[in-house]
Write a structure and sequence with these properties.
alpha+beta; about 120 residues; 3-stranded antiparallel beta sheet; Bacteriocin As-48, Chain A
């Protein structure tokens, strides 16, 4: 199930809690509109790697978790059977071992986000 070092729960039996990614900076200042466009492009293309129905369904659940507040995101991840390797959701696995890598820009806003003109 997943890779070594990833699991649904910690050794003491508690579920690995997800968190927001640490603050990050985009290579150049970016507007909210540009950030939304990057996110849309990522979510539109990411599920097509492999194309199996199970992978597409998991990508859809990961997209929903990325947009949700932390408690709802935790519920989505837990119900989808996603194995969280990085608590900020940047690296996860499904129950079949397929890897899902999410860039920080789909999970949070950069510190250098600027207003649209």
């Amino acid at each position: 199930m997943g890779c070594a070092g990833s699991s649904h729960s910690k050794p003491d039996g508690t579920v690995k809690k997800i968190r927001k990614p640490k603050p990050w900076k985009h290579p150049q200042p970016i507007t909210k509109t540009q950030l939304i466009q990057l996110r849309d492009e990522f979510w539109d293309t990411a599920p097509h790697y492999g194309g199996r129905k199970g992978i597409i369904a998991t990508w859809e659940k990961m997209a929903a978790a990325a947009e949700a507040d932390l408690s709802l995101a935790q519920a989505i991840v837990d119900s989808a059977g996603v194995i969280v390797q990085s608590s900020d959701l940047t690296v996860c696995y499904d129950e079949r071992g397929a890897k899902y890598e999410l860039p920080k820009y789909v999970l949070s806003e950069p510190t250098n986000l600027i207003q649209d003109s």
